[in-house]
Amino acid sequence: MFSTLRRSILPLVVICCSVALSSAQDHKEEYPTVPAQEALKTLLEGNTRFVSGKPQHPHEARDWRENLEKGQHPFAVVIGCSDSRVPPELVFDQGFGDIFVIRVAGNVVDTDVIASVEYAVDHLDTKLILVMGHTSCGAVEATLAHLNDPDGEPAEIVSLLYQIEPAVIGIDNNLPKEEMTNKVISRNVELAVRRLSRTPDVRRSINSGDIKIQGAIYNMHTGKVQLQN
Ligand SMILES: [Zn+2]
What we know:
Elements: H1 2-19, H2 21-28, H3 36-51, H4 62-67, E1 76-80, H5 88-91, E2 99-103, H6 111-123, E3 128-134, H7 138-148, H8 155-164, H9 177-197, H10 200-207, E4 212-218, E5 225-227
Helix pairs in contact: 7-8
Bound molecules: zinc ion.
C-alpha cells in the first residue's frame, strides 16, 4: 500500500521540481550551502528546543512562505517513518523549506527513497542525510509479528515488511519483546544508512567529503533524538 502510493506520487514531485529547477538554482546564490556538521548541529538544537517545551516554530510566516516560491534550499534530508507520532518538522523545530523529508513506514530505503535523496543532494545542494527510526515503531513490530505468523497481511504490506526483515537477522529472539524490538529498530536504521551509503552516486559524494549520512533514533517517550555511532 505504502510503496504503491509513493510510486504514484514521486514522479509528479520530480517533474514539478525539475520544472522549477532553473529558478531554484538562480535563487541558490542568495543562500550559502550549509555544511553537514552545521546542519546536524541545527537539527539537534531544534530537538533540544522541542524537548524542553520551548519550540520556536520558525519559518511559518506568510512572507517566508511567499519567498519560498523562488526555490527551496533545505539544509538537511530526513528519512523517517510515516508514523503520525514522529513528524520531523516538529521533532526538530523546523519550518517551511528547512528540511527535505522523506517518510515511509519503517523508514526503509528503497529505490524511490534513494532517488529522492539523490535529487536533494544533486539539485538542492543538501549536505546532511539523517535516517531516523523511532521507538515503538509499528512497522518493525509488524515485521516481528509477521515472522511468527506469516498469514494475514496483503502482499503490498508483506513486501514492505520484507525490507525490514534483514534487521532481525542475528538478534537473539529469546530477548524480552521490547528489548528485541528496540534492537531491530536500531539495526534497521544501520542497514538503511549502509544501503544508502553503497549507492554509487551517494558514495561518490561521501568519498569526496561532500555529504554525511547519519543514523538516529527518536525516543517517543522523551522526545529526544539520539544519534547512532
Ligand atoms: Zn515507525
